[in-house]
Amino acid sequence: MNIEEKTAEGFKKLNHLLQNPPFPPETFPNLLLLYCKYSYFDMAADILAENADLTFKTISTDDFEFVDALILSAASPEESYRKFQILANKHIDTLRRITKSI
Q1: How confident is the model at residue 83 (pLDDT cuts 50, 70, 90)?
Q2: Chain centroid, CA 39 distance in Å
Q3: Which range among 4-18, 47-61, 87-101 has the greatest average pLDDT?
Q4: Strands, E, within 1-102: which ranges?
Q5: What does each C-alpha distance from 89 to 50, 72, 85, 102 come to in angstroms?
Q6: Mean pLDDT over residues 3-23, rounded?
Q7: How far apart are CA 56 and CA 51, in angstroms?
Q8: How far apart are CA 83 and CA 64, in angstroms?
Q9: For a disulfide at 17, which of 23, 56, 85, 95, Cβ 3.0-4.6 Å?
Q10: Confidence of residue 99 (pLDDT cuts 50, 70, 90)
Q11: Predicted pLDDT at 56
């Protein structure tokens, strides 16, 4: 898609796919993550709100929590930091359990 060279065109293509089902299941998460990568947090929030049904079908809970914290970073850095800290603690606990079992 050449998203690095033609960002607007890539977003347009992914949005077109999303608006015209059936589309590959990767379309929604890819569009969401690309919006976050390029700091279009408002657009990412809009796409999440418009496609709540796809959110829970195509994105894991951990990925959703990460994207949610990223989106929140533009409006409330302190709250975003708190959410990232919760995610980090959850993953650290998992890593400790796995390390102990090894």
Answers
A1: very high
A2: 12
A3: 87-101
A4: none
A5: 30, 19, 6, 20
A6: 88
A7: 9
A8: 12
A9: 23
A10: very high
A11: 85
Q: Dihedral, CA atoms, 48, 53, 57, 61, nearest 10 degrees?
A: 50
C-beta of residue 69 within 8 angstroms of C-beta of residue 89: no
* 92: its two tokens: 């650290």
Cα 33 from Cα 65, distance rounded (Å): 12
Cα–Cα dist 11/84, whole Å: 27
State the Cα–Cα distance between residues 27 and 20, nearest whole angstrom.
Answer: 11
Rg (CA), the chain: 16
**Diameter of the chain measured on Cα atoms:** 48
* Helices 61-75 and 77-101, packing angle to 10 deg: 150
The whole-number pLDDT of residue 4 equals 85
